[in-house]
Amino acid sequence: MTVLLTYLSKVIICSAVLYGYYYIALRNNRFHQWNRYYLVLITLVSLLTPLLQIPLPGQAAETSTVLSYTTRIVNIRETVIPANPGISSGMVLNILYIVVIALLLTRTLISLFRIKNLIRRSQVQEIPPYRFVKNKDIKAPFSFFRYIFWDQQTSLNSPEGQQIFKHELVHLQEKHSTDKLFMELVTAVCWINPFFHLIKRELALVHEFLADKKAAGEEIAGYAQTILQMAFQSKQFSITNDFFHPPIKRRILMLTQFHTPRFSYLRRIMVLPLATFIFCSLAFVADKRPSAIPALTTTVAAIPSATIAVDTTPVKKVTTRKDNVYTSVDQPPTFQGGEEALAKYLSKNTRYPKAAQEKNISGTVYVNYVVDEEGNITDVRTVGKNPGFGLAEEAMRVVKGMPQWIPGRHQGRAVSVQFNLPIRFMLDAGKQTPKTGDHTVNFPPPNDKEVFTFVEQPPKFPGGEDALGRYLSKNIRYPEQAQKANVSGTTFVQFIVNADGTIRDVTTIGAKKGYGLEDEAVRVVKAMPRWKPGMQNERQVAVQFNLPIRFSLQN
């Protein structure tokens, strides 16, 4: 019910704004054909625009350039029948809404059936492109699609009869019955929207303006007199085009109005920026995919003339850039020889800037670049805070001088991939600085304060992902308030698996679903047994992990 109410609210807002502009700027003007198309189009726009969900690209924080370890989504489906089953207020409203739709559609079908039955009982004369129907039960002339229905009291050969006939013929030629049937269906399905009923009434009147204008010709006075003389004839069907269509005053006003309104063209084109505003307001939505997931990195310490810790991983955002540079691929690009060879290359070629050594400056430089389809390094730049003193320049120089990589592959073909390389410059005062060209690689001692986001062997739940899915399915309880509100969605839980396999720093990221879903996911993750810790350089290390849990309700 929540989704339906949201959609209907957007439809009502959209149709209210667009019809309001029509009422203020376009109504009672002589560009009837324009008004006809406008009324039909704003109905379609109002119905379709709220259905669009065009995500706006979010701006990720500098600290979340890439994703950390994310397991496959674990589905939690609630199939337990509530303890006190009953009919909720939302269900009653849904049933009531559907019942009204059914009644209105039934009324339309009855009208169609009555017209078909009238044709079957009448004398039908085929006069292409129309069919002329006469019957004693017809009380006044009207038309419907290819049929012109004529009563026995109105003489077809009289001047008034000829004017009425021309009027109905215009309805057939302009296919006004299609508009009327469309609006009948729309107002039946969206009966709760009052503006659709106003649009339907206004569109029917615009049809009459169009037919009156063409049928009257030069005899405007005589045509207006015909309308007045037969104004009180009754209508037979709501979906037909009747010559005696009220209100009479506006029809005669349109016939006798000859002046062109001021700013006629401007009135029509000013709807374009208004429609654009409505479209952007209702169709574009914020990208709610999680963007605050920290980097997947490997920490290695390489010593050229000082200690340099290297973190390597491709950027794994969920989107692709507009210049066909991927940020998530099936096979990420790799340095020739792997990460160990990359560490040796950096150890051999990186020189700790003299100015930074003298000032005892250390820090991490984030180098962002693209590995193209041939493995070449392009678009090298730094992101984040620059430590200064030549560290960023040295990091970029070494990256630009890299040999060709093994390019990334996606869907069986080589593609360009964005890559992130954090390089940590550290001065080790307790050791003698190695000579230039020394390939020694030092690794920091294991501790839980240093959290990895990419390691050689990622942490695992005891028994693997299948066991993790069984654990969550067994222990998670679908929040009662979420069941009552019929709320479902995916909750992203982020936590750290310590070097001893324990869980800490459990939190949720991304858009909040509410109704207790985040609280329940955090509770179950905190209660997990010890994991098999991640391994880096043959030692156990603390690793950041993401666990998507999808809550879904099954009827």
Proportion of strand residues:
15-25%
Shape: elongated
**What gyration radius follows from the Cα positions, in whole Å?**
36 Å
**What is the first-to-last residue Cα distance?**
14 Å
Structure, explained:
There is one protein chain. The chain is an alpha+beta fold. The protein has helices at residues 2-26, 32-48, 89-121, 159-174, 176-189, 194-216, 220-229, 248-256, 264-269, 271-283, 338-349, 354-358, 391-400, 464-475, 480-484, 517-526, and strands at 54-56, 69-70, 74-78, 123-127, 130-134, 142-144, 147-150, 241-242, 284-286, 300-302, 307-310, 313-314, 325-326, 363-371, 377-383, 408-410, 413-426, 441-442, 451-452, 489-497, 503-509, 534-536, 539-553. It has 16 helices and 23 strands. Strands 10, 11, 12, 13, 14, 15, 16, 17 and 18 form a 9-stranded mixed sheet that branches. Strand 14 (363-371) and strand 15 (377-383) form a beta hairpin.
Secondary structure layout:
Layout lengths: L1 H25 L5 H17 L5 E3 L12 E2 L3 E5 L10 H33 L1 E5 L2 E5 L7 E3 L2 E4 L8 H16 L1 H14 L4 H23 L3 H10 L11 E2 L5 H9 L7 H6 L1 H13 E3 L13 E3 L4 E4 L2 E2 L10 E2 L11 H12 L4 H5 L4 E9 L5 E7 L7 H10 L7 E3 L2 E14 L14 E2 L8 E2 L11 H12 L4 H5 L4 E9 L5 E7 L7 H10 L7 E3 L2 E15 L2
Parallel strand pairs: 1-9, 2-23, 3-23, 5-7, 13-17, 19-23
Antiparallel strand pairs: 4-5, 6-7, 6-8, 10-11, 10-18, 11-17, 12-17, 14-15, 14-17, 16-17, 20-21, 20-23, 22-23
Helix pairs in contact: 1-2, 1-6, 1-10, 2-6, 3-5, 4-6, 5-6, 7-8
